[in-house]
Amino acid sequence: MFFKYRLARVEDLPECRRCLRDHFAYDAAALDDLTALWRELIVSGAGNASVIEDLNLPAGRRIVWYCITVFLTPDYASYLKADAPPILGLSVLERWRVGCSPLLTLAQVRQANCGDGITMMAMNSGATPEIMGSPTALARLGTKVNEHTFWSVGGYRLNEALIEMYTDYECAWAEGYGQILRTDYARQLTEHRPAWLIEGCHPRLYGATRCEAEAKAGCPLLDMFRYEPPRFLFSPLEQELLQCALFGDTDGELAEFLSVSPVTLKKRWLSIYDCVAASDETLLGGMGETGKRGMEKKRHLLQYLRHHPEELRPVCRVK
Q1: Radius of gyration of the chain (CA)
Q2: What is the 3-state secondary structure (H, E, C) of the chain?
Q3: Which of 105, 109, 147, 191 is deepest in the core (most CB within 10 A)?
């Protein structure tokens, strides 16, 4: 196994369907619609999707973990914690199908990040059956997920984070990470057990606010609530490049991933460096016009961004 984390692309989505923890709730038509919703969220920038690949596997079968995170309207976030049935991804999908999406648009995410904050939910996530069936592989994958959680979903002006769990193993992970049980759906499922709910599945909703995370000493989840106003206000294209570059790809690999020419990629890097230097040239290592300028600037900048993911999040760009 050789795991690599990266942003999800639209062309990954059919492969990502194998990773759904709540796959049992979707028939074939619902899976097709869910994939269309994922595509819309990725293309619009309103969702935050990532994958982990096992590079030792053949192309087309490498994705072993997938997660798409979304941002909720305040009314829907309240509903989830009060009256919602289990399988939140299906609930979102049903509303989206009839044109009443409970998810924030990119413009609304930007506004919330500049205003009163945002509620985040892991809408769909999970690992492949092969990983789930191997305790050793699952443990290694879990370590990789934990390593990259802050980079992938940190940096928002986050008020609350929500996630649904379906097994005792998942719930133990959530509690260890700092999540708090919000809703146990056992009573609902006793009164009316859906025909599709598989044996051994016990859905529960977990969540945490900033204050709750701060109250738990050493809580790993607290990192997700760290927030500072961004200093550089990179453009969306610059943010996309920087997010991809965080995970160690070469410029050649980045150009291929982003479907741009090497010349275009170089121009983007120069624009990024100019933006940073205009605010704080020392952050780039104090390099002048000679020497290992590009590589050194990139190294210093990426090191900074690994601790300041707010620079990579949607924000109202007023300079």
Answers
A1: 20
A2: CCEEEEECCHHHHHHHHHHCCCHHHCCHHHHHHHHHHHHHHHHHCCCEEEEEEECCCCCCCCEEEEEEEEEECHHHHHHHHHCCCCCHHHHHHHHHHCCCCCECCHHHHHHHHHCCCEEEEEEEEEECHHHHCCHHHHHHHHHHHHHHHHHHHCCCCEEEEEEEECCHHHHHHHHHHCCEEEEECHHHHHHCCCCCCCCCCCCEEEEEEHHHHHCCCCCHHHHHHCCCCCCCCCCHHHHHHHHHHCCCCCHHHHHHHHCCCHHHHHHHHHHHHHHHHHHHHHHHCCCCCCCCHHHHHHHHHHHHHCCCHHHHCCCCCCC
A3: 109
pLDDT in tens, 259-297: 999 999 999 999 999 999 988 878 887 654 444 577 888
**What contacts 90, CB < 8 A, 6 or more positions away?**
22, 25, 26, 30
Model pLDDT for residues 131-160, shown as the tens digit of each residue = 988 999 999 998 888 888 887 888 999 999
d(CA 94, CA 34): 9
| Backbone dihedral angles phi then psi of residue 145, each to the nearest 5 degrees | -60, -45
Q: State the Cα–Cα distance between residues 47 and 106, nearest whole angstrom.
A: 8
